[in-house]
Amino acid sequence: MQRSTSLPPTGLVRLSTILKHYQISQSGWYQGVKDGIYPKPIKAGNKSFWRAEDIHELIDKICAGAGQA
Length: 69
Description:
Elements: E1 12-13, H1 15-21, H2 26-35, E2 42-44, E3 47-51, H3 52-63
């Protein structure tokens, strides 16, 4: 069974899934988080997750021309 790489409408997603929809390097993403451009992750143990809703909002802002990223 192949895993879906689609960005779900809600829930938590890993960075690997985000980067399939948002063309930036992993180090570039983390720098953007540090600079406040991208949403901060939710930490669970040593893993990081992002709210899918926050990522959709970020993509919508960029598509609308309101984002800096």
